[in-house]
Amino acid sequence: MDKYKNKIKSLYLKLRSNETNYEIKGVRPDRDWGMILVFSQLVTLILAGVALYFYIQIDNSRIFTIEKNSQSSEVTVSKVLLKKLVDDYKKREDSTLLINSTKAVPTDPAI
After folding, report:
1. Taking a C-beta distance cutoff of 8 angstroms, is the pair 65, 58 a contact?
2. Which of 3, 72, 97, 107 maximizes the CB count within 10 A of its CB?
3. Which of helix, strand or coil describes residue 6?
């Protein structure tokens, strides 16, 4: 029984490591973080290049151009419709002032 006990202890001590050693399992945090930083900087540079390309193309009117319509004319306002609209707003203003000036007295529910 002591023989098996000692074997288990020795196996446990072999498997248990007191110090952290990343080289054994192929895990290298410095390499991983370096890859993350390089990748993020590369993506940032690519996006900045695309943004610069779009800025130059828009500035030179090569993309997203708006053609000026030669058929556009001045907007004419109908005086009759404008007067009707102003009268409607005047009526709304008067009714709002009337509602705000009169105090509604609630009925007494006890009666």
Report:
1. no
2. 97
3. helix
